[in-house]
Amino acid sequence: MKHKFSSIDKLIKSNFKVFECPLTDKLLAENGDTDLVIFVKNNVGEFFYIDSPLPHPSTNLSVHSLPLKKTASICKNEEISKLIALLSEYGLLVLLNESGEPIGYLHFSSVLKELYDSYQYLEAYFDTILDTIDTSVCVIDEQETVEIWTKEAEKIFSISHQEIIGKKIIDYFDVNNLEMLKTLKNGKPFYRHQHQPRSDLFVLVNNNPIRLKQKIIGVVSVDTDITSQIRLNQELFNSIRKVQHLEQEVTKLKPANDPFQGIKGSSQEIARTIEMSKKAAATNATILILGESGVGKELIAKAIHDSRESAGAPYIPINCGAIPPSLFESELFGYEKGAFSGAINTGKKGKLELAQGGTLFLDEIGDMPLDLQVKLLRVLQDKRFYPVGGTKQIEADFRVIAATNRELIDLVKQGKFREDLYYRLNVITIKVPPLRERKNDVIELVHHFLYEFSIRYNKPIQVISQKLIQDFLHNDWPGNIRELRNSIERLVVFSTDEMISTNEHVHLSDDSGPSIVTDNSTFTDTLSTLQDELEKYEHKVICQMLLNENGNRLSTAKRLGISRTTLYNRMKKLGIM
Ligand SMILES: Nc1ncnc2c1ncn2[C@@H]1O[C@H](COP(=O)(O)OP(=O)(O)OP(=O)(O)O)[C@@H](O)[C@H]1O
Fold first, then answer.
1. What's the gap in Å between 480 CA and the centre of ligand 1?
2. Domain holding 44: CATH number?
3. Has residue 66 been placed in a domain?
4. Which ligand 1 atom minimizes the distance to the CA of 481?
5. Integer Cα distance of 470 and 107 in angstroms
6. pLDDT tens column, 133-166
7. Structural domain of residue 62, as residue ranges?
8. What's the CA gap between 480 and 461, in Å, rounded?
9. Less crowded by CB within 10 Å, the N or C end of the chain?
């Protein structure tokens, strides 16, 4: 690289001889009339050189009449700045190897020439780069004086370089808007901050401090004009709203909608799952949906219901993991007036009755208490049931879809789930693959949720940086699509401009376990709202306890001193499941 000062080795000269003191005239007799540089070393190791050409032996001059000049010696591997300092003091410098032996010398003039050549290359490159780039670059020095101002800066800010160079930047811009000055003071770079220097101008700003030997000697600011992108985004956003409105109108006119169209993703894995679900929806059979938390089991259950039941048929979900065992039976079967004493004496329809003519969705079926499993099995077999405290049987005319993220067959082996109920539910099984096994869907889902939340929060359509997309693709998503959806919602809510490039509001995990925020730095420079910080901490505590308890929610809830329902609700809210 010609613009870099080349290695010192290239400049070392080796036409020299070293003589020890005292000198004798033999030196002249043997070396006279040569172009060798003669160094003289005294008994304390100091070096001198003879500062004139050696005369011919025939001149009979005495060696003592020759002009001796003091010089310094230094190891050739010393820092270049030290070499240059000594060289400018003495003009000539003896270079030593690691064992202190002289191996050559440096001459000020040759080093200077080399430095000047490199400087000229550097200047030529530097000027051409600044002339060629079409972004706005401004450089100020430590006195806040403008040193560099490119053509694009002239265009964006309507100030010519003749006018601004050499002047203080604060003479041209409002000091409160000058992020460069902050960077000059605190040395913190920042990237891709959106800024609006004029009402008709949007720019993305990158600022970087220039350091020389740890000292900040200036700041570079690069501004990219994104006004046209912002305008286009705005137009796109308006158009999308119009299209969405039209879509809604068209949907109203269409005779039938595809209930499965809300299940996004085009990977082979999800396509297979949807195909299987459609086939299952063509029957009245009981369906068991298996898959990790947040993979979309309920979404599929609802699509099956919409597909196979008539419009207006009830869809009744019940979360078997969230209802305390003591209330479960009355929730499921309902109770007759007078069945209990106290406030609940008026009677209430149970979920089974509410589901008449439609679908009963038994979510988290693996968490259903054993005694209730027996009762549910009886309902499924007899197709009729009694409400708690009731004497009149009610018809059980509904289709059952059950779902769980637990290995039901293992629970059967452990005696925690009834085998007969398992086979009763497991007529058709649909397995929903976790997101990490269908990474192809991540990008589509990201855009789908971005679109959804941009509309919901009335924010212009967001663009996610490539780097963040990569982070999303590399994440294992232990909370699956729910976690991804929550992450995008947070990003949209907290985004301050149209480019989302930071994941500070997303807890990306780098292993397959639950995601835990371990980076304490989030608590220093990126503190957000108290609510947000509390949620982050709660997320961390719950995940850690779940890990300690091997994922067992009941013992996790006990250890945390909260009910299982509360734990379940908090996990859902925080996107852990
Ligand atoms: N393929 C998908 N396309 C769009 N959204 C999806 C998809 N899959 C899941 N979601 C969304 O992810 C969230 C979680 O989905 P859902 O509740 O159906 O998961 P689940 O497997 O039933 O979870 P859990 O086991 O915790 O009950 C919901 O907001 C749902 O709308």
1. 8
2. 3.10.580.10
3. yes
4. 12
5. 54
6. 888 999 999 999 999 999 999 988 889 999 999 9
7. 8-115
8. 24
9. N
